[in-house]
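Self-study notes.
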Amino acid sequence: MPQRSPSPVRPVPAIHPVAQQSTRDESYMESLQILERLHRLLLDLVKDEFERLGRSDLNPVQALLIYNLGAAEVTAGELRTRGMYQGSNVSYNLKKLVDLGYVHHERSEMDRRSVRVRLTPTGQEVRDRVIELFARHAEGLEMSGVLDDPPLERVNLQWRRVERYWAEQIRYIY
């Protein structure tokens, strides 16, 4: 039986740099769309949870504000600078949360223009419900293996890098 010569190894064609950049741009745009959808879904998940609990007085943004405030006592401005609140209408939401009894506010003795806020016991109950909701989701995602490939820690590292880049771009503009 005649011996067959091994088939020649064909080199993998290189991707043209322009095509490679186009693919990367498309991936970035897709990531932005996914990020936006995830944020909307997060708000929907929180809204559904509070509807199930019979708490229709809170909207999901307010519930997340309560969650992010946690045990801290801060000024309204610090809510934004510390990343606890990303929206533009923090004063409206804080006033609403104070009126509903979820947040306590107090004028600073040193600077009467400054108001410090913290959760009331009712606000702490809301925060605990959000913590429980997120814990259930983390457990379900862990059991499904979704958080393993790639490891969530690597994904978070990448998002922190994007966050830093965006923040630098904003500072550069001003």
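Second protein, same conventions, sequence then structure:
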Amino acid sequence: MNEKTNMISLEGRIQFVQKKLDFFAAKGEMSFADRLMFNNMTSYMSDLQAEQRAIDARHPLQDFMELRLKGAVVNFGTIPLELLGSISSNLASLLQRATHKLASGKDSQRVPYDVKNTLNMRLAELSPGSTKLGLTFSTGQCELVETTSSKAVKEIINLLTTSDAISLMNLVAEIGFNAALSLKKIVEECDKNQIDFDLTWVGPFSEGRQFVSVSSKQIKLLNDRLAATTMSQPTTEIIVGELASLSKYGKLEIEVDGERLKASFPVEMLHEIQKSHKVGQKLSVTVEVTEIYNENIGFHRKNFLVKSIN
């Protein structure tokens, strides 16, 4: 039976069982036999709905992420509730904060409701064995080009796969310090509980199956690097130069005295910039400046967020 036929068959079975449940519910008083049949039908409906959710979670226009936890504390089909709560909530915060940072340029703990609503992250599966958390979310279904949310997921996977300290810190700066704090809490929990993990992502913009396996050694290294990373308080500056490049993903470059300075801007500001300035023209912007630094590796990077066009 192919997938399409199986789906039609499943929908038919759900409709059939629902009609039976409605019939018994309408009777009011039920005999012992009716009650037994009703309970069996209710249990069967639960199984059918679980099967339907599994199909929906792997729809080609739906993003599906699986986090497989590996370690003694999770290898027998159960997971401590506090551990599950910490990892799932920080995984959600990681994706939401990284998406918000790439979309708006703002590196903040609080994420607007519309970002959370658009991502629509849900726990779809919790499988036994080496415990697997299956998550569904949305990076966009009708878009023809890559979205900021899909770019955020790719940057997170790149961060988890890189071994170079400077590359890792540059990726932290891209997804945002606050998103990195959420990742830090995940790796802290994994380190404390001696857990390794695999991360898999499939979605409309994943370009196939994206997979990364993170060992305990990598977790310790990542934990150490993130623990030594800090961000300064924001300051305000005015920058005047030549607009060298402009990206629809909220990035621009300004050439100042022969040096190219990279800045982020809220994507909704793109039309305003395009309307008043062309590449090669003089530009004056007010920016918010923050600095991410890691003294252990001597890394310093300034992030510039455009607040207004002067």
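Instructor comment on the second fold: Residues 90 and 201 are 17 Å apart (CA to CA).
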